[in-house]
């Protein structure tokens, strides 16, 4: 595959020969071709080196583990127990001259693979990963919860709106009904007067005609008596109509809108307010190990009886 980077054999490159490495020496930190690996395996200085497949090397190629001192650039080969520090050959005489327990890293790293620290590191990574996933899940479901709440608020707004609409419809219908009936009452009173006046008009028209005829054709005595009688009726009718008109009223229809409804259309500026209640998060991101015991990252330790006794006290 062209995407896979070829790793050259180190010893061959030294002779300006380009050959792909099939193995990798983790001590020499270079690739080895088949021939060079053979001589590397036989050579006294390198027969104990840890040689791995080039495929396995690719897996750890990007794991950044610094093996050199960040201050001096020399290989980290010493460990000071008092300071809990890894040291290079320059560090030792400069700052740890007085330290009595500076030992070679090779002496304490032999069991590093089986160390409690490494297994605890693995547990810590696993535990932290679970923590991260738990928190992620929690926040994701919190996001869904917000969406649910948004929907609930929205339907509450719409429901309220529908309620107001139907209430307004009802109130409007009631008011218009009242308007119709009030208008009807007023008109009825007017019409009643008009009808009375109409009958008065008819009566007067008749009396006018009778009076003309009386004037033309009746005897003097009849005219005398008729004039008095008709006059009496007219006077009576005038009195009656006068009191009727006097007792009647003028009406004017107006409306007074309920002040809350006025306010709704003029003063109410918000349908409501969206509120956010904040509360302390019910979720903790805890360190899987630090709560129980401090892990020792630097010093590989093996459990022994005295350690266990110490923990039990
Ligand atoms: Zn080679
Ligand atoms: Zn080697
Ligand atoms: Zn150093
Ligand atoms: Zn020291």
UniProtKB/TrEMBL annotation:
Transmembrane segments: none annotated. Residues 4-54, 64-105 form the B box-type domain. The keyword Nuclease does not apply. This is B box-type domain-containing protein. The lineage of its organism: Eukaryota, Metazoa, Spiralia, Lophotrochozoa, Mollusca. It holds the Pfam family ANCHR-like_BBOX. PANTHER family: BONUS, ISOFORM C-RELATED (PTHR25462), MEIOTIC P26, ISOFORM F (PTHR25462:SF296). InterPro entries: TRIM45/56/19-like, Znf_B-box. Keywords: Coiled coil, Metal-binding, Zinc, Zinc-finger. One of its GO terms (molecular function) is zinc ion binding. Residues 118-159 form a coiled coil.
